[in-house]
Each structure stands twice: as structure tokens, then as C-alpha cells.
Write a structure and sequence with these properties.
mainly alpha; single chain; Growth Hormone, Chain: A
């Protein structure tokens, strides 16, 4: 059945997308500048993956609790709480880098990461406001909103480098002190989203005449939801594994990209620009990816996506030219987008509105845990075995859900043979 999107929901989606535009630049600083900041303050290449690991830790810590909050109180309170934390975190990160304090830098990045990951409940809000036939596309619109923010990242870094030359300031401090103004604008945009997306999700038939809620698997309703039930159900288990693998692969590659480019003598602006292409891969194609997931199915987009991250990791680790390395990190971004959009849409389809914040929070927590572990491993792996070893490891990580999927298909085929 084809549904017409109501003007009110279009308005809310535009506000979410614009908010992402203003708030998304900071995450690029964590991935692009973070490893260099940590090495500069600590003097240890073994800690190169710490900044990305802190984002993984923050996602692991905050995603499920913020899902509980938004399931109970609505999506907007959780999103605004997250952006408030991110605002505090930017100031602590800037201050920590300015005084060369590793511990202050770590605390600031953790607070910032918790805030930004809590604000990812915008994705839950997007799925709330649309029927299953349009959810992939809706997630694409929210993600695309981050594209405008991507342009701000290298722009702010470039401005900081020029200001640092004239003022003697640290060019890795100034970008963080510019972020609070952008975050405040993003908070204001979220405030004007009305009614709360959860309320819309609980009453979809009011906005889409003829819509009927699909039956859910046991353990996927608001009253009987459990993390264990989510992981026992094969489609949701595979979706969570695919998203976690794509996130883990990307965490390694993001650290790898900064270090490889710095090793070849490229400037901070060049590094930020390379990460811009990565982020373009993450967000520029999310609408067609979402539409494709709506049209051909979630799994037919998830698995090719995670396979694409394997190719991207190989290019970053085993080539030396700026163009090929940037192409590799770009492909990792596209692969992550496909895995993330399709897996999130699948979870939203399988779980009802009142439990959706916790379900997608579980997905994000698992991805955060994997990202945390792999980011911490990446620095020592590079230090002791070199850059190619890290790239090979990223490819192996991405292959895990593909093997799980093949095992599930083989198991199903064997059961069918036995029945016959």
C-alpha cells in the first residue's frame, strides 16, 4: 500500500535533518583529529585508537539507558538531554587539549560521545513517524541532514589552522570551542518538533489512513520486551551483528586513515578532507540506500553493505596514494551506511513503538561495545605489526556476520531436507 506523507511529519523530519546538520560536525573532529590529539598529549602511538574507543564506550554506556528514557518519556527529552551533554563535552575537550591534560581530554570525549550517541534517538523518532514501507527512506533523510555538517568540519579546521598561525593557539583546540554555538542551534530545532515522534508512532493510523500494525514476534512488544528475546530472534540477531561488524570495521579504518595520511605528511586540512569523503559515503547516499531497503528488503542491503567495508579497509591499509586511501575510507562509509540503515529499519519493523528506543539502543550498545574493543586493539596492533595488519583485521571483523548468515542459511536448508 502506498502512503502519502503528511505535511506535519515532513516538517518534523526537516527539523531533525537540520539539527543533524548543525550538530554533526563534532563527530568528525573525534575521528579526524582525535587520534592525533591523543598522540600529541600522551606521546604514545599505542593510544592512537583511544579517541574512537571512547566514542564506542560512550555508545555502549548510553544507548540502552537513553532508549529506556525515550520509550518512557518520549524521544525529544532524550535527544535534548544528549545534546546538552555534548555541549558540555566540547568545552571539556577544548580545555583538556589546551592544558595538555590526557585525563581531561578523555573525560571530555566521553561526555561528548555520550551526548552525541544519546542524540541518535533522532533515528528512532524517524522510524516512529513512518510505516514500514517508508522507514528506510525516513532514516535516509535523517542521515542526509548530517551532510551539511560535514562541510563545516574541514571548514572549521581550516579556519582554526589560519587563526593558530596568527595567534599562536593550538589548531586542534579551536574547532572544539566553535562547536557549542552549532549545538545550541541544533537543540532549538529539536525543540520545535511537535508532537513527540513517539506519540505519532503510537497512533500511526491517525496520520496514515488504512495503516494496520503488523503482528510482532514474542518478546518484541513494549510490555514483554527483553534484550535476550531480541538476540534470540534470528532476523534481529543478524541485524545487530551486521551493524556491530560494520561499526567495528569503520572504527579501525578511521584510526588507520588518520595515521596513514599523517605518516605520508599530509596536513590536518587534508586529513579532515579525506574524512569528509568518508562521511559523504556514510550520509550522501542514505536516501537511495533507504529506498532500496524499502523496495528489495533489509537483508539484501545489509549484507552487501558490510561486504563493501571489507574492500574499503583493504584499500586504506594496502595502498599508499592519497586518492586510493580516500576512496577506501569512502567505501567503508557507504558500506556502513547500508548496514546501519537497513539493520535499524529491520529492528524498527520487528519491534513496536513502545519498545523501539530500547531495541535500537541495544543495537547501538552492541556496536559501541565492539567499537570500543577494536579501537583499543588498533593502536597496539599498528604499533607492533604495522598498518596492513590492522586493515586485515578490519576485513576479518566485517566478514563475521556474513559467515553467520551463511551458517543460518545452511542450517535452514538442512532442516528442510530432513523434513522432506
Amino acid at each position: 500500500m502506498t502512503y502519502k506523507i503528511p505535511p506535519l511529519i515532513k516538517r518534523n523530519m526537516a527539523l531533525f535533518a537540520l539539527s543533524q546538520s548543525f550538530t554533526g560536525a563534532g563527530m568528525q573532529f573525534v575521528y579526524g583529529l582525535g587520534p592525533l590529539m591523543i598522540i600529541s598529549v600522551s606521546g604514545s602511538a599505542d593510544l592512537a585508537g583511544l579517541s574512537v574507543a571512547l566514542i564506542g564506550l560512550s555508545r555502549f554506556l548510553v544507548s540502552y539507558p537513553i532508549g529506556q528514557i525515550t520509550d518512557r518519556f518520549g524521544r525529544k527529552p532524550g535527544i535534548l538531554l544528549g545534546l546538552s551533554l555534548a555541549l558540555v563535552g566540547t568545552l571539556v575537550v577544548g580545555g583538556g587539549m589546551d592544558v595538555r591534560s590526557l585525563w581531561l581530554l578523555v573525560v571530555g570525549m566521553l561526555i561528548f560521545g555520550m551526548g552525541m550517541n544519546a542524540a541518535q534517538q533522532m533515528r528512532v523518532g524517524a522510524t516512529d513517524m513512518f510505516p514500514p514501507q517508508l522507514r528506510g527512506q525516513a532514516l535516509g533523510y535523517v542521515a542526509l541532514g548530517a551532510m551539511a555538517g560535514l562541510v563545516l568540519s574541514p571548514l572549521l579546521v581550516g579556519i582554526s589552522e589560519r587563526l593558530a598561525q596568527t595567534s599562536g593557539s593550538d589548531p586542534m583546540v579551536l574547532p572544539w570551542l566553535m562547536l557549542p554555538a552549532l549545538i545550541v542551534i541544533g537543540m532549538g530545532l529539536v525543540y520545535f518538533v511537535r508532537p513527540d515522534p513517539k506519540e505519532i508512532g503510537m497512533n500511526l493510523a491517525k496520520y496514515y489512513p488504512g495503516y494496520k500494525e503488523a503482528p510482532r514476534a514474542p518478546g518484541q512488544g513494549a510490555a514483554d520486551f527483553s534484550m535476550r528475546g531480541l538476540l534470540r530472534h534470528l532476523p534481529t540477531r543478524l541485524a545487530i551483528a551486521t551493524n556491530a561488524a560494520a561499526q567495528g570495521n569503520m572504527s579501525i579504518v578511521m584510526v588507520l586513515t588518520s595515521l596513514v595520511l599523517a605518516h605520508h605528511g599530509h596536513s590536518l586540512t587534508m586529513i579532515a578532507t579525506s574524512h569528509l569523503f568518508h562521511s559523504m559515503g556514510m550520509f550522501a547516499f542514505t536516501i537511495p540506500i533507504g529506498k532500496l531497503a524499502d523496495r528489495i528488503g533489509r537483508e539484501r542491503v545489509m549484507y552487501p553493505g558490510v561486504a563493501l567495508t571489507i574492500l574499503g579497509a583493504a584499500l586504506v591499509a594496502f595502498t599508499s596514494g592519497y586518492g586510493l586511501i580516500t576512496l577506501g575510507t569512502f567505501l567503508v562509509g557507504i558500506g556502513w551506511a547500508a548496514a546501519n540503515v537497513a539493520s535499524t529499519a529491520l529492528l524498527a519493523d520487528e519491534v513496536e513503538t513502545g519498545a523501539r528506543g530500547r531495541a535500537i539502543g541495544t543495537n547501538d550498545s552492541c556496536a559501541g561495545g565492539v567499537s570500543l574493543v577494536l579501537s583499543l586493539i588498533t593502536g597496539p596492533l599498528i604499533s607492533h605489526y604495522g598498518l596492513p595488519a590492522a586493515g586485515l583485521f578490519a576485513a576479518i571483523v566485517a566478514a563475521v556476520p556474513l559467515l553467520m548468515y551463511l551458517a543460518a542459511r545452511l542450517g535452514a536448508s538442512r532442516q528442510a531436507l530432513y523434513k522432506n
